[in-house]
């Protein structure tokens, strides 16, 4: 699906407004949209709403063999999927440039910054380690997917609990969630990415661009930072040239924003923890807003099944008997099952043509196959004669036709076999029509 | 969790025919739906059955690639994304079931040479996933305003090892069941549009499950009606 192109007047309007320090949704230059973080029913599932941009992250784990170069460390893998649901421009299956860029940035932000203690994920050195996998699904793209994805990924990792493992000598036992409480991952710090969009060759900048602003921006600067004011990753794309002061200013803004967002994440985690401890149900189902006109929820309902048995038996009795079953299969040799007899084998009956093309519609076995092979031979001869007559093709059109017709007529008589006699005329007709079509 | 109001079930063999005698009442979990929750897709809905939740988004009618266009109908494409990992064979079979149901109910000939794309994202799977996908798909198609000849809903039935029919089973109940069936029921005549089954069961049991699903579908269609009425009402 192609995305609707941005009209020139829309583009001009946006740029003009930005020059006057106005944004479409009324925000200030350094304002973020409203961030809402909710968690799902199982550990490691996190939904993040950044304005209208919605993203879901799920963390999961499994036991695998470690990498040879690092036998003591666990493995982290990230996968950000640009779902076609999020935007009509995203296509299923194709790894677009944006998808590669976002995946790479997410990896750099979370893996290279060593925010998770991978050595604690080791179970048996050199043999079994935990592989933590984070899948980020984009649900709605209204700009700034990177920030939403980074918040979702780190929240999912903070929320995740892995199964407890007991080691007794050589034996390793993995306990299920009912036997022993799962334990959280050890996370050193929370890197969060902040995006800055630049317009008019770096003159104007906006924090947290929405989708329209992203379409008219010149370049994007992404800074991933943690609340201790350590820069985890910085990337500038779009080819804009920034001054040193601009980059410094952006990093200062980023540190303020990151501390606010980290505060939000911690609050959401705490809320979820208290809700779970209180025993209440939590998850996407619970977080559905009830007061909205577009949402409705019902309680558990019962289904009356009093006359189910009667209706079922009546259907059963009035139904027709099932059709005759297929003939029972034969077992000619061990490991071979045969049902039916199939078409008679016709290989080796014709010696003339070597063509192996299978013509469709071989219905009556031998006869039609022989017809087909003859037609193929005629085509062969025809192509040969055509090659010979290539120079004279314009002069002797009629002669060619006659020759070919002669060719056509000759064949059934010379090779006339008794069983082909009846079908020869049909074959001739078909062959001539084929020739005419070829012309 | 399902519970049964009356006495225990008997499981008896009658001349080689297996029969299930269900109780007079079975429960379907609480369900909820929210429509138009995403701003980009033309229609979107999220459907929740107990803890199982699925989000659906619809784009269409839109431009279609020349290789995929059909001259007199719209081309419907269905995508199911699991929560963890990449879509695999199981998702493909779910897509197939959904596509067949949607093609039977949508009026595709109103949009020739166009594409309709239906994307589903599994948010949490606690049993009855395929029926939740069907319900979410129907609500999203309604939200997108696509013309449909009939509505459809999905109902899952499980036959446990001791012969009871459980509607809308949870994941734990599904795991212990002997057979699992999902039916797509249409709204006009309550007939079966699509069925997907797993496990072994007799013809009689199948008919009983179909009858149960038809009963349960009444509730779901009533819910559709209530949601739409609420949406377009002037006062709540």
From TrEMBL, chain B:
Gene3D superfamilies: GHMP Kinase, N-terminal domain. It comes from the Eukaryota. CDD domains: RNase_PH_RRP46. GO terms for molecular function: DNA binding; RNA binding. InterPro entries: ExoRNase_PH_dom1 (IPR001247), ExoRNase_PH_dom2 (IPR015847), ExoRNase_PH_dom2_sf (IPR036345), PNPase/RNase_PH_dom_sf (IPR027408), Ribosomal_Su5_D2-typ_SF (IPR020568), RNase_PH (IPR050080). One of its GO terms (biological process) is rRNA catabolic process. Keywords: Cytoplasm, DNA-binding, Exosome, Nucleus, Phosphoprotein, rRNA processing. Residues 28-146, 152-215 form the Exoribonuclease phosphorolytic domain. GO terms for cellular component: cytoplasmic exosome (RNase complex); nuclear exosome (RNase complex); nucleolus. Its main location: cytoplasm. It is found in: Cytoplasm; Nucleus, Nucleolus. The keyword Translocase does not apply. PANTHER family: EXOSOME COMPLEX COMPONENT, EXOSOME COMPLEX COMPONENT RRP46. Homodimer. Component of the RNA exosome core complex (Exo-9), composed of EXOSC1, EXOSC2, EXOSC3, EXOSC4, EXOSC5, EXOSC6, EXOSC7, EXOSC8 and EXOSC9; within the complex interacts with EXOSC3, EXOSC8, and EXOSC9. The catalytically inactive RNA exosome core complex (Exo-9) associates with the catalytic subunit EXOSC10/RRP6. Exo-9 may associate with DIS3 to form the nucleolar exosome complex, or DIS3L to form the cytoplasmic exosome complex. Belongs to the RNase PH family. This is Exosome complex component RRP46. It comes from Fundulus heteroclitus.
